[in-house]
User: What shape does this take?
Amino acid sequence: MNWQQSMLQWHGDQPAIRILSNSIRVFDTKAPEKEKESSYHTFLVGLLTGNTDWVVRSNVEAGEGFADIIIEPEDPDAGIIRELKYSKEANGLEKACEKAIEQIKDRRYSEYLINDGRHNITLYGIAFYKKRSKAVVEKISS
Assistant: This one.
């Protein structure tokens, strides 16, 4: 599995988590509280744009808000929505992931992909704390 495939299937301790852990330094996470998520966001967008078969969009106006990252893979029926959250502590990663998934659903970000004819959509709630990260993945079909 190459790193692009691992980013598409970010679960538990997949290679993407190792890339993050090996690339981010604790110093990199020393930003004001309101800016911490932005560092991870930029890093992740940079990794994802390495796959030339994907259209990767950042801070996309979708539904009733702005989705952090929307990916349109080569498969015309597939779509990916990633919402990122920064957790103030390591034991809050799971809750932050769930909050991200809720936000995707509550603000109807999937409408962006559905309006583009994409109906096999994967949602990722991704949370970060220093060099740690966690992802919750959910699939929806419309």
